[in-house]
Structure formats: C-alpha cells, structure tokens
Design a protein that fits this description.
Length: 202
C-alpha cells in the first residue's frame, strides 16, 4: 500500500513528553544547562571564599609567628574623628550599649625576629565593645597569637580571631556543597531513570 493513498494520516508529533521518555518505562530528567549553571555558581562562591582566605593561609604556612600585645583600642564612626583609648577605664566609659554605628578596633604591637617593633591594627573590628581589653583578668597585658610576613611585617593575620575565617569559610563550604549537588544532578540528568511498574487490574 502506498502511503500517499492516505494523505489525511496524522504526522507523529515529537513533543517534549515523547523526548523525555526515550525508552518505555524510563524518564530522563534533562535540564542539563540549569545544572551546569548551578555548578558554575558553586565554583564562583568557592573561588570568592578562597580569594578572601588566601592571605591568612599563606601567612600561616610561610609567615613568622609572634606574640602580639594589645596596646590601644580605637573607636571609630563615619564622619567623626577616631577616638584612641589607652586604658581599660577609658574603654569601659566609651562602650556602646545600642549604637552599632561605632566600631572598636584593637591595635597590637609585636617584635619581629630581628627585633623590629611593629604596630598593627587587627583586620576585624567589633561593634558595641572591643574584641580585647588591654589587660587580662590577672592584670597582665592582653596578648594574642600573630603571624606576619617577614618581607612586609605589617601584613599580619590573627588566627585565633574567629571572624578572620568565618565569612570565607561559609563561602567555601556553600560553594563546595552547591558544586557537589549540581554535579550530581547534572550526572543524573543524562541518565534514564527506570520508573516503577504499576500493575493495573484487568
């Protein structure tokens, strides 16, 4: 029989539904581009977090270690001159109970291996009150661990200050999780998934 004898026969329509079921009883999730976009977004977060944490990691690996002493607290607010506090009584008098527009910065000093005295400000500030007072409960000067770049001693990191790592760590972990989920979804977007067989009563 010649197919031209039946011009009215419908032409099969390859809809998206028929493409999603290439094998009877199977399903292909598809949407691969969206999964690739998710992978790219995860990698972007990972690289962004790594870029922020690169200098601290470099100093921990190749830098020199020293004990830094808190010598002052600087209270700052945009539009106002900095206020330098050099004893704990001044600090207590200048604490803020509600105004978070002020930022307290600890300033430290330490000696390098060649005896040079270096004074630096911590890279992380604090609202309402400083991270450290000038003296500890025993009345001794407050100290903290510092790593510095021997070639540029003012480039430092205080590894015991949690805020040094928190934001970067969140970005790195979120990026890894997003990349892992995106990669898994992309892998299965190319694989036919067998659908459960449901028997119907005759």
């Amino acid at each position: 029989m010649n197919p031209s004898d039946h011009p009215s026969d419908p032409i099969p329509n390859l809809t998206s539904t028929s493409q999603a079921f290439p094998v009877p009883g199977h399903y292909v999730p598809a949407h691969s581009k969206r999964k690739l976009l998710m992978i790219g977004y995860g990698l972007l977060l990972f690289v962004l977090g790594l870029s922020h944490i690169w200098t601290p990691l470099r100093l921990l690996t190749f830098g020199k270690r020293a004990k830094a002493e808190v010598v002052s607290v600087v209270k700052t607010k945009e539009g106002l001159p900095d206020l330098i506090l050099t004893d704990d009584a001044q600090i207590q008098a200048k604490l803020e109970s509600h105004d978070r527009s002020y930022v307290f910065w600890n300033e430290f000093q330490f000696h390098t291996d060649n005896g040079e005295l270096i004074r630096v400000r911590a890279s992380v500030g604090s609202q309402l009150k400083p991270l450290y007072t000038l003296t500890d409960p025993d009345g001794l000067p407050t100290t903290d661990l510092v790593y510095y770049d021997p070639a540029h001693p003012k480039t430092v990191v205080f590894p015991l200050i949690i805020s040094t790592w928190f934001a970067s760590g969140v970005l790195i972990v979120a990026g890894l999780v997003c990349t892992l989920i995106g990669t898994t979804l992309y892998y299965w977007s190319q694989k036919p998934i067998e659908l459960p067989h449901i028997q119907t009563e005759k």
